[in-house]
């Protein structure tokens, strides 16, 4: 039966001819829908005002460029003219890229989960014109399925309720908004007094809780689907380095998961880089999108495993290989070039290296159809055709390619699923270039070229650490290029006493859209502090401190901490007009946890008691979560581990000689949790007015020999002049 539709609507509103407004958006996901017959608008005041003027609800569709089911629903419904006509007549349709607007995604995901008990993407939410949600779901098929109505049926039911039972919809929306407000954590962060310290027993309790959730045979935690637990792994590696009674258990858990992921189909065995998640418990069937934020986090934790020294079941050398290939993939596959800045010399290069793109798609377009994982799948016949029958059969056995595919009828991703012996390794090293070259001629997944500030901040930290530990200066240079792009394109320095501002997204070298969220400021500051530790360039330290100061003013005012600074009135309405703070990690560390880490680094380098106290206030969120929800609080746990260690502060002074480089390298290779390093940028900087505060008053030996000062809270021990003594003192400070 046909539901209410265009004939039931006031005919007076008219649509502009070019009503789909997504063509000029920086988000690749939004631009993918620019050709839809649906009259999409980006999220913003204009769209909601238009809905109010027309007296119709808003249909909000949230997804991201690499999302397979987003592509499916787009093809089935949003490209269908009849569905589009109904949507255009009865709703104002709004598209959101969840990566561009995680604040929007978070509040409406909470609403969707409250309404349906589940969540995911594409997310389909129906809103009042003030932004409050009253109905929601995820993927809706074009035709009814058992237990799931068709998209058209949902649209018609919502339209009927809007016309006939609107008071009930408004009441539902109000009740939901008040429920979401009650669930916010913002007021739980006390910014007006000294916090209680975190004890070591709390972190040991978290290790015990994680052990109870571990899948010891498959690696990771829980059952399928499995996501890489990056933040939890960082905590476990830091805890293992701290030497407590649960250190061995932490090391073993981390090693099992790192080994399992790197030997599985989650890791691209040919080209490097990790997929978003696995739909199987043993990581053998990945969901193929490759995200910057996953790979930046995993690169760093694999490097930190190398720094820890590895373990017998997963040697540091194996992790170093995975880390190196992941770093290479990041730069080669996500690295962007941008046009020169206006006003620069036109005789120079047409473009120059920029930052990193957001993702590669899960799907490959093959013969006009979206095929999930199409680039990455192999059959036994493919291998035999390229390598010959002997090597082809051997590689099929080694890489788990069988007659029956794991993803398609006969297609499987390559993965050994175990440690390779010497013969396996020799075979793989011989055939891998052949297979990679052949794969490069296949259709490739699309890339989302938007630059997200926070995710690039994660990459700066990862590449800086990787370059230092793996002794690859090119990776440090890449980190500096990304940092320079963030400073040039995303950051606007304050003037006249005003703090600077950080923009979240840029495209083709131009910042667009909303200001940065707490996570953007925190991740960028963390990356810049890590880059300063490796390079000693005070430029990066000063920029990190400016970003931290701006974040304090933007997100930590009025006695509460929040994830966003009122970017959208509609989001504020949807969460009951209460500032939101989510302490739980998602695909990335929570903004609050990452900010606590950046504040700790700032306090260690600058001596700021205000920043140390604020970090402690954020960590006060941890006690009720450590033993009950440690999988969702990994970065809070990792930051608490650093706070418990001090963190240790290291000041390296003296002229830039090989002897100083040896002292610096000893520190860079130390697994001490949260170790903060200040390196004298130039001769005499330690006494200079603008020097990093940790360096002030600390001088080289009388004969000019370099020295290391190891400190806590700016209180230092006697200076040390050899790498061996630095190593001994660090070990003693960990006890």
Task: Describe the overall structure.
The protein is an alpha+beta fold. Helix 9 (230-242) runs parallel beside helix 11, helix 17 (518-535) packs antiparallel against helix 18 (538-555) and helix 24 (658-668) packs parallel to helix 25 (723-734). It is globular, with a radius of gyration of 26 Å. The model is unreliable at 1-18 (pLDDT under 50).
Question: Which features would summarize this protein structure in a list?
Answer:
25 helices; 47% helix; five-stranded mixed sheet; 735 residues; globular; disordered N terminus; alpha+beta
Please specify the SSE layout and strand pairing.
Layout: H1 28-32, E1 41-42, H2 45-54, E2 58-63, H3 68-78, H4 81-90, E3 92-97, H5 102-116, E4 123-127, E5 133-137, H6 151-164, H7 166-182, H8 200-213, H9 230-242, H10 247-262, E6 277-278, E7 286-287, E8 290-291, H11 292-308, H12 316-334, E9 335-338, E10 352-356, E11 359-360, E12 363-366, E13 369-372, H13 380-398, H14 422-440, E14 447-448, E15 451-452, H15 453-469, H16 473-490, E16 491-492, E17 501-507, E18 510-515, H17 518-535, H18 538-555, H19 569-574, H20 591-606, H21 609-619, H22 623-626, H23 634-645, E19 649-653, H24 658-668, E20 676-679, E21 707-712, E22 715-716, H25 723-734
Parallel strand pairs: 1-3, 2-3, 19-20
Antiparallel strand pairs: 2-4, 4-5, 6-7, 8-11, 9-10, 11-14, 12-13, 15-17, 16-17, 17-18, 19-21, 21-22
Helix pairs in contact: 8-10, 9-10, 9-11, 9-23, 11-12, 11-15, 13-14, 15-16, 15-17, 16-17, 17-18, 17-20, 20-21, 20-23, 24-25
